[in-house]
Amino acid sequence: MSKGLVPGCDRAAPQITVESALEEAAAGLGTEIVRFSRLLAAWKQRAKTDGGAADRVLLARLVVGGDQRATDLAADAFLDLSTVSRQVRSLVERGLVARRPDPEDRRGSLLTATDAGRAAFENYRRQRDAELAALLAPWSPQDRADLIRLLGRLNEDMATRQHTRLGPGGDQGAAVEQGEIRT
Amino acid sequence: MSKGLVPGCDRAAPQITVESALEEAAAGLGTEIVRFSRLLAAWKQRAKTDGGAADRVLLARLVVGGDQRATDLAADAFLDLSTVSRQVRSLVERGLVARRPDPEDRRGSLLTATDAGRAAFENYRRQRDAELAALLAPWSPQDRADLIRLLGRLNEDMATRQHTRLGPGGDQGAAVEQGEIRT
DNA sequence: GAATAGATTGCTTGTACCTAGCAAGGTTAG
DNA sequence: CTAACCTTGCTAGGTACAAGCAATCTATTC
């Protein structure tokens, strides 16, 4: 298609090829993402009985990321602060998370995963990883590595867009470089 | 896990290396999947205002998969039939889906996407793909293709496990052969 | 330098909505 | 009659938005 360089439209031909390839890729990725989303929902539903569900993400952030304030958790998980507040209360009531006064700011508190919380998280993660390992077992090491790398990059890019949309939220690892969004 | 793991060889290292590599990959993938899940939820939340939310999946199935009964939709989406029933009612009330008596079984009805439903779905998909295209624009064609391919394979494997887990009486056949379908 | 009014930040609570499953019903088919 | 298909009532969970309280910061004034 892009070979015939007709004098009248030679400029547009390569452009169109590149763009249509991009659109095709976007459509394909969209298909896979929707499908993946459905599968994830079903998986969550199935794994709901053996413990809480949504607050696991917050617990995980506390275990692997260290003590944090609720605001940081909310920004990290793309959740409203009020939602995090409730989830944290539930976690505290179940003894998985403890509140501790922030020595630097007595308005809020620092959240810590208790030993029980760490154990619960490890238990959950072990089971999850076992299932994933069974899934990945027949894969080639190359494919495994590629999937993780590319999904990681997709996450990075999506998070950047999300944060850009929501404004500057707390962020720990990824240096999001967007201009100041004052006003 | 407890496979052969033959000791005594001059180098048992490769076995161990293989297993630990698999576990490491599973852990890495788990991390990325959890993160991706949160990002997807946030994205859905943000896109909630411009139309329905969850019933889009059912509408999509009807558009790309043709007329179906509610039971088939439920099996395909891993949802309870009652949930599908309600969502279908909503879709019908909004004029996106029409009921039509099944000529072969008057107990239920066949569901069809109306023209408005098709238009709504196309509109949604166009917008979704535009966002994804913007996201993928800086990617190399190789990375794009790889991500789609690997995510597709992950979906295949997960769907297989899901179906086998739900038992053979469930919904075999519906979600298996959707080669060219784009949802 | 101290006091303090106003703005900002951190979190909680009230409310409403959406999604989902389970259980109990109707209705039709075989 | 029994089984298949669908609907409806109830319940539960997760989430956002708005409103509000408490602690801190900033700036102005004396």
Features:
63% helix, Arc Repressor Mutant, subunit A, three-stranded antiparallel beta sheet, 3 strands, 6 helices, DNA-binding, homodimer, disordered C terminus, 183 residues, mainly alpha
The chain-level structural class of chain A is mainly alpha
What is the overall silhouette of chain A? globular
How would you spell out the order of helices and strands of chain A?
HHEHHEEHH
If you compute it from the alpha carbons, what radius of gyration of chain A comes out, rounded to the nearest whole angstrom? 22 Å
Query: Low-confidence runs of chain A (pLDDT<50, min 5 residues)?
Result: 1-10, 167-183
Query: Biggest sheet of chain A: strands side by side, in what order?
Result: 1-3-2
Can you tell me about this structure?
Chains A, B: InterPro entries: HTH_MarR-typ (IPR000835), MarR/SlyA-like (IPR039422), Tscrpt_reg_MarR-type_CS (IPR023187), WH-like_DNA-bd_sf (IPR036388), WH_DNA-bd_sf (IPR036390). Chains A, B: Residues 26-156 form the HTH marR-type domain. Chains A, B: Residues 160-183 are annotated as: Disordered. Two copies of one chain form a homodimer. With 183 residues, chain A is mainly alpha-helical. Chain A has two domains: 1-46; 51-177, Orthogonal Bundle (Arc Repressor Mutant, subunit A). The first copy, chain A, is 63% helix and 7% strand. Chain A is built from six helices and three strands, in the order H-H-E-H-H-E-E-H-H. The first copy, chain A, has helices spanning 12-46, 55-65, 70-77, 81-93, 115-136, 141-166, and strands spanning 68-69, 97-101, 109-113. In chain A, strands 1-3-2 form a three-stranded antiparallel beta sheet. In chain A, a hairpin with a 7-residue loop joins strand 2 (97-101) and strand 3. In chain A, helix 2 (55-65) packs across helix 3 (70-77) and helix 3 (70-77) packs across helix 4. The longest helix of chain A has 35 residues, at 12-46. Chain A is globular, with a radius of gyration of 22 Å. The structure holds a DNA duplex (30 and 30 nucleotides).
